[in-house]
Amino acid sequence: MKCLLLSLALLELLILHKGSALFLNEDCEKIDEEDGPTTAPWMAAVSNEQGFLCGGALITKNFVLTAAHCIKDQEKLFVKLGVLDRSDAYGMDFNVSSTKMHGDYQTHPGVNDIGLLKLASEVDYTDRIRPICILMDAAPVLQNIKRFSAFGWGKTETGNLSQYLMTIQLRRLPSEECQHDNMPLLTKTQFCADSETGGGPCNGDGGGPLTSIVKNRTVQVGIISYGPRDCNLSAVYTDVASYTDWIASNVHKA
């Protein structure tokens, strides 16, 4: 706990020193101290022509951050923003004009499981739609954050995809805790996490964000990558802090 408090204090000093330039997008979500957490205005539902596929997070007016496994072998993708219920008619629908997988993505063992979706048109920010924060140049601090919230519309106990956005609280674990079900050794760009109460992200949750509140900002710490088939054990997440240069480079040159 002392380590976490020290890391958060250091992060606050970095933010005060660098200002908004510390974030990929200075318009990213701020949490009102009086109103408390918002209803995930950055959450993206990613679909193909057959239906819902994955989660993702809006990071700029043109880009959604997701997992590479959600993009691989997909020809036509769509994004819906501004909804908690995937069938909500008030959501905003966008065509995806192009996709970008990490060049070193490996399906097995899921290394470099990160990708970007470029939207065909710019997003207009509203109370229901706003980007999540990508914190730049603070990897050691972010990697010491031990508690997260994961979001997704993945399968529930019924075996069906959830119609409504679900969230679960997770804790970071040592990498060896994810060595079950013949899951491979983790790299430095991945981390292991689980829920103390049981359950966790499941099929359909992939690509969705792991978040933490830092200095009244919703910061994306991880991307849901893969886990055991029964969804009740620890799972693997892509460490966003390891890829901030890759994210910024691809967003800014597009």
Walk me through what this model shows.
- The chain has 254 residues and is of the alpha+beta class.
- The protein has two domains: 43-130 and 245-252, Thrombin, subunit H; 135-241, Beta Barrel (Thrombin, subunit H), CATH 2.40.10.
- It is built from four helices and twelve strands, in the order H-E-E-E-H-E-E-E-H-E-E-E-E-E-E-H.
- The chain has helices at 2-18, 68-71, 139-142, 244-253, and strands at 43-48, 51-58, 63-66, 78-81, 92-101, 115-119, 147-152, 166-173, 190-194, 209-214, 217-226, 235-239.
- The strands form two sheets. Strands 1-2-3-6-5-4 form a six-stranded antiparallel β-barrel. Strands 7-8-9-12-11-10 form a six-stranded antiparallel β-barrel.
- Strand 1 (43-48) and strand 2 (51-58) form a beta hairpin.
- It is globular and about 45 Å long.
- The chain starts with a helix and ends with a helix.
Number of helices in the DSSP assignment: 4
Number of strands: 12
Major sheet: 6 strands, antiparallel, barrel
Strand content: 25-35%
Q: Globular, elongated, flat, extended or rod-shaped: what is the shape?
A: globular
Radius of gyration: 17 Å
CATH topology of the largest domain: Thrombin, subunit H
| Unreliable stretches covering 5 or more consecutive residues | 1-20
Subcellular location: Secreted
Family: Belongs to the peptidase S1 family. CLIP subfamily.
Main location: secreted
Protein name: CLIP domain-containing serine protease B4-like
